[in-house]
Automatic annotation (TrEMBL):
This is DNA repair protein Rad52. Pfam families: Rad52_Rad22. It comes from Spirosoma sordidisoli. Keywords: DNA damage, DNA repair. Belongs to the RAD52 family. GO terms for biological process: DNA repair.
Amino acid sequence: MDLNVLTAPLTTHEIEWRVQSQTKDGQKIIVVPYITNRCVMQRFDDQFGWAGWQNEIREIEGGFLCTITAVLPGGEIVRKTDGASRTGIEPIKGGISDAMKRCAVQFGLGRALYDFPKVFIETTDKYIPNWATPLLDKMVDKINAGGVVRDVVVLKPEHAKPAKA
């Protein structure tokens, strides 16, 4: 079975970047890409049709399990499960969403994000600065176009400034 819709490269609108940690010296943050839950729903709708898949959420101690069941074109039923902990912000909604996103990876959706480079952003803030977002988008576009990106990328404010004439 060709899961080309699920496994197609993710667009910049389907990825959200989250701060994973701050470096010990406080001069950089490390950010990692995640698929959005809306991306999961849309890609599954596009791949299997609105009525061709479903998800089931089960609460477990400390988190949630999500099982996604999909009906393949030949009628075969495929079911995969993964889980996630409650999150710090909106523990129930966030945990359910994270479990569903992790389960989608079992089907191949977003699996390529694990091959993305380690990304540092030069900032003393604890959040991704506005100037860095277009640079992250450019990097995603370059990866999707088959361009080579280093294993470690450091984004700096001067990278975002327009070139002088």
